[in-house]
From TrEMBL:
The keyword Phosphoprotein does not apply. Keywords: SH2 domain. SUPFAM superfamilies: STAT. It comes from Erythrocercus mccallii. Residues 81-141 form the STAT transcription factor all-alpha domain. It comes from the Eukaryota. This is STAT6 protein. The gene is Stat6_0.
Length: 167
């Protein structure tokens, strides 16, 4: 742990020296940092969906009736948190799409432009995959969510998909 603390202090010093000299970090550093933030958020969202599925599986009896008295209270909360995280991940993807569009416009003026759409496509595919998993969990939990919460959740999920497709 002491060695790690020393190496970290050295790296922080080097980072401060680079920032002092250049007053900014290279663009590739920011892009990599953004990719890591998105992948972490996506992993957290996938974990949340697995938690919802496990909670539903745990609460289901042989006849399909809910056995656990805890499941009806926790399940809506978990689903609401997952939908909120899905919306945050969607915003990150839309922001990245907007940056890509702006870079494409600047390329018309001679700026350097990376035309590779593979990372952006991968983000969208991963987000849509999680969207469909979450939608399945919401539909499976329709009885626990109640008649007033279910339509609101379905509308929020629909808005996530529509905004991704439109942009």
């Amino acid at each position: 742990l002491r060695l790690v603390a020393i190496v970290r202090a050295i790296l922080e010093g080097e980072k401060a020296a680079v920032l002092k000299r250049d007053h900014h970090l290279p663009l590739s550093f920011h892009r990599r940092q953004e990719e890591l933030k998105f992948s972490l958020g996506l992993q957290r969202l996938q974990h949340r969906v697995r938690e919802i599925k496990a909670l539903q599986d745990e609460g289901q009896g042989r006849d399909g009736a809910v056995q656990s008295p805890v499941a009806p209270r926790e399940l809506p909360t978990l689903i609401l948190e997952a939908v909120k995280e899905l919306e945050a991940a969607k915003q990150q993807v839309l922001k990245r799409i907007q940056i890509w569009k702006r870079q494409q416009q600047l390329a018309g003026n001679g700026a350097i432009f990376e035309e590779n759409l593979a990372p952006l496509q991968k983000r969208c595919e991963n987000l849509v995959e999680v969207y469909f998993q979450l939608q399945q969990q919401v539909m499976a939990a329709s009885t626990e969510l109640g008649p007033e919460l279910l339509p609101r959740l379905l509308e929020r999920l629909k808005e996530v998909l529509c905004s991704l497709v439109r942009r």
